[in-house]
Design brief:
Helices cover 50% and strands 0% of the residues. The protein has 58 residues and is mainly α.
């Protein structure tokens, strides 16, 4: 049987699978920009279409 030892310079927490700190920050930044783009496009669509009920009764 082989005993495995963790070297003191190795990280053993769960965050090692997600990459470096810089990569996580970059991923969060890109995700936030993507969400902002979706929100902006929905606002633009809502503004362009306007309220369809305005003038419908005239």
């Amino acid at each position: 049987m082989v005993d495995t030892f963790v070297r003191p310079d190795q990280r053993t927490d769960l965050m090692t699978g997600f990459g470096s700190h810089r990569a996580r920050i970059w991923t969060i930044a890109v995700a936030c920009m993507g969400v902002s783009l979706v929100i902006a496009s929905m606002v633009a669509l809502n503004t362009a279409l306007g309220d369809r009920r305005v003038g419908a009764g005239s």
